Amino acid sequence: MPWPVLVFDIESIPDVAGLRLLRDAPADAADAEVFGQWLQERKDAGQSDFMPLHLQRVLVISCVFRNAEGLRVHSFVDRDNASEGRIVQQFFKTVEQKTPQLVSWNGGGFDLPVLHYRGLRHGVVAGKYWDMGEDDREFKWNNYISRYHMRHLDLMDLLAMYQPRASAPLDAMAKLCGFPGKLGMDGSKVYEAYLGGKLEDIRRYCETDVMNTYLVYCRFQKMRGGFTEAEYAQEIEFVKHTLGELAPNESHWQEYLAAWV
Predict the structure, then answer these.
(1) What is the set of domains in the chain, with CATH numbers?
(2) Do the Cβ atoms of 215 and 233 come closer than 8 Å?
(3) Distance (Å, rounded) from C-alpha 190 to C-alpha 203?
(4) For residue 131, what are the contacts with CB-CB under 8 A and spacing of at least 6?
(5) Distances (CA, A) of 138 to 61, 94, 149
(6) Is the pLDDT of residue 184 over 90?
(7) pLDDT class for 261, splitting at 50, 70, 90?
(8) If both were cysteines, with which of 66, 78, 80, 222 could 227 make a disulfide (CB 3.0 to 4.6 Å apart)?
């Protein structure tokens, strides 16, 4: 097992401020009006209403960090609507300090490009992450950027043999493997929840999603020989024990464990 491992997932919302800037919207136009007009134009043109990646504002970055010392669940959250740059920097600072294997589900297609654009916008520094062998020769053959390297493992992309038409949703694969899957929310409901002031609900949802990713990753490690059957079973029990310790203070882990049959 290549510890340390950092499994991550982000939740984002439309960057209406950026949209206003790019569309040169009137100062007296409400955010809802600016966003609504953009949505209507997309609908009229028969285009997707999914906001382009460079206009996705990062709200939550949830992580499962596993090393020889244990397992930790942590989220970087923009709680004051002004800390997006700080939480993106904190994420990349963790990568800088720990140099973990990054693991994601569609991280190469969504999460990382969003973090790249938002990091660029906010002046984030991420030297180790962007190293492709210029500073560390080992990174020439195994870095975070190259699609076919394992320093960032996009599980969805790899399992689909890098064929988008073969990709599967995380929720489905988690449930098929016997894990809880998504609980109570999905990505399409995040912006509505944000507008309703339910930031903690979004954070909890993101944490359960990243835990699903970690568990599917463990299953993958067993398939590829990274875990023996006994080691896999031991790791699953360790995860349940860890979440059991968190559950008294975090209701979503109570719900998650109850759904794990």
Answers:
(1) 5-259 (3.30.420.10)
(2) no
(3) 10
(4) 139, 143
(5) 27, 19, 12
(6) no
(7) confident
(8) 222
Cα Rg for the chain, rounded, in angstroms? 19
Q: How many CB atoms lie within 10 A of CB 61?
A: 26
pLDDT for 136-179, tens place per residue? 999 999 999 999 999 999 999 999 999 999 999 999 999 999 99
CB 59 within 8 A of CB 52: no
What whole-number distance in Å separates Cα of residue 246 and Cα of residue 259?
16
- Of 254, 219, 213, 12, nearest to 111 (Cα)? 12
Dihedral sign for Cα 135, 140, 146, 150, please.
negative
What is the value of pTM for the model shown? 0.96
Please give the structure tokens belonging to residue 230: 């006994």
Q: Where are the beta strands (DSSP E) in 140-195?
A: 152-154
Q: What secondary structure letter does DSSP report for 70?
A: E
Picking from 106, 218, 227, 84, the residue whose alpha carbon sits closest to that of residue 167 is 106
**CB < 8 Å & 24+ apart, contacts of 167-172:** 167/106, 170/105, 170/106, 170/209, 170/212, 170/213, 170/216, 171/212
Residues 6+ apart with CB under 8 A from 100: 3, 4, 5, 6, 65, 67, 94
Residue 224 tokens read as: 């590829």
- Residues 58-90 have pLDDT tens digits of 999 999 999 999 999 999 999 999 999 999 999
**Bond prior to 164 in cis (omega within 30° of 0):** no
Would you tell me the crossing angle of helices 31-44 and 16-23 to the nearest 10 degrees? 70
Residue type, 66: R
Query: 18 is written with which tokens?
Result: 């950026």
